[in-house]
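Work Package 3 (structural annotation) set out to generate three-dimensional models for the target panel prioritized at the project kickoff. During this period the team completed the workflow that converts sequence records into discrete structure tokens, so that structures can be stored uniformly alongside our sequence database. As a representative example, we reproduce one entry of 474 residues exactly as it appears in the project archive.
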Amino acid sequence: MSEDILSVGIDVGTSTTQLVFSQLTIDNTASIASIPIVRIVDKKVIYKSDIHFTPLISYKEIDGLGVRKIIEKEYERANIKPEEVGTGAVIITGETARKENAKEILNNLSGLAGDFVVATAGPDLEGIIAGKGAGAAIFSKEKLTTIANLDIGGGTTNIAVFKDGEVIDTACLDIGGRLIKVENNKISYISDKIKKLATSIGLEINIGDTADKNKIKKITDRMAVLLEEVVGIRPPSDDLEYIVTNKDLKRDYKIEYISFTGGVADYIKASEEMDFKYGDIGVILGESIFNSKVVKEKKIYKPIETIRATVVGAGSHTTDISGSTIYYSEDVLPIKNIPILKLTEEDEKSSYERISEIISDKINWFNLENEKQLVGLAMKGVRNSSFDEVQSLAKAITKGMKEMVQSNFPLIVILENDLAKALGQNINIQLNHKKNLVCIDSIKVENGDYIDIGKPIASGTVVPVVVKTLLFGY
């Protein structure tokens, strides 16, 4: 029998805070004699909130009460009570995730309703979520092409590159529409990085200066050139290295398409002489990008969502049952809200030594201000693997997940193919039986998903799994 579930997505970003309510229809798609397999069979947005400026007490401190009041007001406008919401996601993104009390905001909002995914999205994960919410991931899969989604917000530009539907690279730059703010035609704020960038092109700009569009456009034009550099149109400069937030793109592949999301995306067009309408440089930055080689020399994919890409991508769930050949430590389960790092099929074709290096590199996507968080490693896994192959893979995973092994977190491995029990036993041997471990199979997840793993059922042979995936993965 089908059932409707109300889902909410909440995005607290550098510039804006917004909310989306959706109705999900779930149904058991298995035959009568089979274990239930619950899937989302229909999904529909039923309410989109206004787009609110994220309230701040100071540049470094979010107004937590102000954010909560915004969300509560939107619940009222939608005529939805918190207890009516069955699932959803609260995502804190961009510069806002760096603010001093971001964790407090997460805790406050998570209490509003439902059993949410609640996460501070680092720049890599934010870029992936935005790219999927925009439809860029599925576009790359359908067209068998490579596309870079540039999610340009108030404080950062988060980039996710998709090839044939898979994430192959990410980056983040300190380029955004609110890195210079304007009040009463005077500059009221300028980030340190942008001030230095201005100096590099021979400009001096200070708080209190008159907001001169021609002068500021020289800065946004330079930002646009840096975007040309990051996607491989121009050779990288010293300025690009400086403006990179966490890491640069590898650029050992060709980007065929570009898509734009985020608040600035709607202003990547010919100038409408709006200048500082929103008290920042977002409109002027959009104009500079419109006139850049990024737009003129790359194929442009028009995304399904722009400013709402992240919030539309912010959560629903499917419930599944693991395979019956699994391995888990006692007393670890249940465990909730595990972000997923999935290896691509190309990754899995690499040597075992290379696989460990790939895992070690990609797990850094989930680091926040040098703080580690629990991450689940997902992969397809080879069917009918030999003992030597399983043993080698166990060694590669243990080496690649060294950060998890050395932490207090359990080691989580999720496989599509029937391999979990043998692999889990071998990993346990590699860990000298001294580490909590969960290794399950018959579960398909993607980068950007989160999962809950419940207590074992059916005499301990299987575990229920909730996959909290992007609502509109298209």
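Confidence is low (pLDDT under 50) at residues 315-319.
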